[in-house]
Amino acid sequence: MTDGRKDRTAPPPAGPPWDVPLAEAPLLFVDLEMDGLDVARHRVIELCLERVVGGEVQARLETLVCPFTEAELAEKTSIGNEHVHGITRAMLAGARPFDDVVTDVEALLDGAILVAHAASWDVRFLEMELVRAGRQTRAGHYLDTLILARRALALSSHSMESLCAHFGIVRPKAHRAGDDVAALRRVFEETVKVLAPVSARDLWEVRIAERMARTAIVEACSAALERGAPVRTVYRPSRRKPEALDMVFTELRTDLDPPRVIGYQLPGRGRRELRTDRILTVSPIPDEHAGEHADQASDQPDRAPKPS
């Protein structure tokens, strides 16, 4: 449970759940269906929340919710956005109001990190429903699979539909909350494989628009520089797919924004300058390639840096 008045552009609070290994952090995967896009006027009509730790579902809530009185519902010829979500007036007739599930929603939120796709929409609508219910609970900081996918994957679109197609994920009922949460979890899992984060905070630091370098990546570059040993660096150039570069780092420019790491690529010792916000992972060279690079690692390059 978090005070929503806190600035979400500031870092998440220190400690659990943000600073434990990602497999130990409680993640709350959320999808909402609404009858429109205006947070002030439109309402949540279906929700699915799954609280997951280490890939295992700890608790779950999936339900239709009816925000209308019987008289208001009787006057409607259809539910807004029905062509998208397929939720009809008859389906909502027997649904509970949000007030009846708000205690369960708060319990799921408590101590968990919310995860959603284009998450600001879900967060705004969920928090507005909490306000209407007279509750102080807010979602706080969250993870957005849209932002994570934009950093990890070079696709023409990063919509949920495009990501499902890319990963071969089948959604039997797209734009129904339960199936969308199942797809969301798969997209998150596949994206995390690419980014290899050390914690949820590490994922939160993936900030596309802010050109922010992940602290864990900068620290990994600094450690590799100190060791002087070759490392496998997965780099995501602008508008291009990630590429694996075997590198020896010779300088880390933390005075630049974002920081740059300078070094030379193996084999061939071509010099490179990499933006650290575009580095996805830094790891030891696989054993089968370590020997062939060992002799070159002690040599200094003699070519000018090649910006990336």
Please explain how this structure is put together:
The protein is an alpha+beta fold and 308 residues long. It folds into 2 domains: 22-204, Nucleotidyltransferase, domain 5, CATH 3.30.420; 215-297, Roll (SH3 type barrels). 33% of the residues lie in helices and 22% in strands. It is built from 11 helices and 10 strands. It has helices at 70-75, 82-85, 89-93, 102-109, 119-132, 145-152, 160-167, 177-195, 200-204, 215-227, 287-297, and strands spanning 27-34, 44-53, 56-64, 113-116, 142-144, 231-235, 243-253, 260-266, 270-275, 279-284. The strands form 2 sheets. Strands 3-2-1-4-5 form a 5-stranded mixed β-sheet. Helix 6 (145-152) runs parallel beside helix 8 (177-195) and helix 7 packs across helix 8. It is elongated. It starts with 26 loop residues before the first strand and ends in an 11-residue tail after the last helix. 34% of the residues are buried. The model is unreliable at 1-5 and 300-307 (pLDDT under 50).
